[in-house]
TrEMBL record, chain A:
Protein name in UniProt: Chemotaxis response regulator CheY
UniProt entry keywords in alphabetical sequence: Phosphoprotein
SMART domains from the UniProt entry: REC
Keyword Phosphoprotein: yes
Automatic annotation (TrEMBL), chain B:
Keywords: Hydrolase
Protein name per Swiss-Prot or TrEMBL: Protein phosphatase CheZ
Residues forming coiled coils: none
Biased composition (Pro residues): 164-175
Enzyme superclass (EC): hydrolase
Lineage per the UniProt record: Bacteria, Pseudomonadati, Pseudomonadota, Alphaproteobacteria, Acetobacterales
Length: 126, 211
């Protein structure tokens, strides 16, 4: 797992951004940026070079699922590993995210081990 | 002929009096020709008319404005305050955690590991703020839907009492494509109650099935 990878975390709750950032810091990821909805994240991704996106689902104006679809439709960004971390725990949500090309899916509340395991898995497949 | 008056005497409201007068006039004009069954039926109608009039009066006395102008806005303000206070408390907990992490970095061995593990557990637990915030948002949405329905009932009731036609029945909800609603928005339901969603283990199995 390359700890120099730039990670973009996307969540409309500032405390959640802070928690995920601190957990990533424990995993020795130092290059972490934040966005508070899908459209801000998409602008940052188009302007930057991120090796991993960790996104919430339920945000406005652009949701995490819509961000995922935009990313997968963008020629330059489409292979970016994308982990959804969300409270959306219905089967239809997981199926829709998978159909849109999500790399992995974590349901809130989650633990640090789950986050670590999913990051290792998607980075290994990247 | 049965009286048909409900217990408690005649309805004193203007509507009730009008209905009673009309029904009595009909009964009076027909009394010679009525069978027992028809008379009983008319008495039932008279009682029904009184019940409708009483219901109208009771709805009018509910002071619905209190609900839409005071109770629901007050409840949503309180819920917003809960979200604000829990966010503030969570941030203070996170401040303390970051201080502890800095201390853990200055010590070594089992004590440092124990401190780091404890801090990680606090981070995990702090994600409650996100979940409770989303749950409260769902409650606020429900309250606003109730408020809209109350407005609708009052509007229909008001039109009925002034002799105006009631508003047309609700138009069917437009299709997502017409509103511009995305799949992401349509499926954004927030946290499920216990047993309502799938577990992380089930999600992992589901994802594995796709691979």
């Amino acid at each position: 797992m390359d700890k120099n990878t730039s990670v973009l975390i996307v969540d409309d709750y500032k405390t959640m951004l802070r928690i995920i950032r601190n957990l990533l810091k424990q995993l020795e990821f130092e290059n972490v940026e934040e966005a508070t909805d899908g459209s801000e994240a998409l602008a940052k991704m188009r302007a930057g070079n991120f090796g991993l996106v960790i996104s919430d689902w339920n945000m406005a104006p652009m949701t995490g699922l819509d961000l995922l679809k935009e990313v997968r439709a963008d020629a330059r960004l489409k292979h970016t590993p994308f982990i959804m971390i969300t409270a959306e725990s219905k089967t239809e949500n997981v199926v829709a995210a998978k159909a849109a090309g999500v790399s992995n899916y974590i349901v809130k509340p989650f633990n640090a081990e789950t986050l670590k395991g999913k990051i290792e898995k998607v980075m290994a497949n990247a | 002929m049965p009286d048909g008056s409900p217990p408690g005497g005649p309805d004193p409201s203007p509507d009730g009096a009008r209905i009673e007068t009309a029904v009595r006039a009909v009964l009076g004009s027909m009394s010679g020709d009525l069978t027992v069954v028809e008379a009983a039926l008319l008495a039932e109608l008279e009682g029904l008319g009184r019940t409708v009039a009483r219901a109208k009066q009771e709805i009018a006395s509910l002071r619905v404005d209190d609900i839409t102008l005071s109770h629901i806005p007050s409840a949503t303000d309180e819920l917003d305050a809960i979200v604000g206070h829990t966010a503030q408390a969570t941030n203070e907990i996170l401040d303390a955690c970051e201080t502890l992490e800095a201390v853990a970095g200055r010590i070594s061995g089992a004590e440092s590991d124990a401190l780091a593990t404890a801090v990680t557990r606090i981070y995990e637990a702090c994600s409650f703020q996100d979940i409770t915030g989303q749950r409260i948002s769902k409650v606020v949405t429900a309250l606003k839907a109730i408020e809209a329905r109350i407005d609708q009932v009052v509007s229909r009731f008001g039109a009925a009492t002034t002799g105006l036609p009631p508003p047309c029945s609700e138009a069917p909800a437009p299709a997502p494509a017409e509103t511009g609603e995305t799949e992401g928005r349509r499926l954004a339901n927030g946290p499920q109650l216990p047993g309502g969603g799938v577990s992380q283990a089930d999600i992992d199995k589901l994802l594995a099935d796709f691979d």
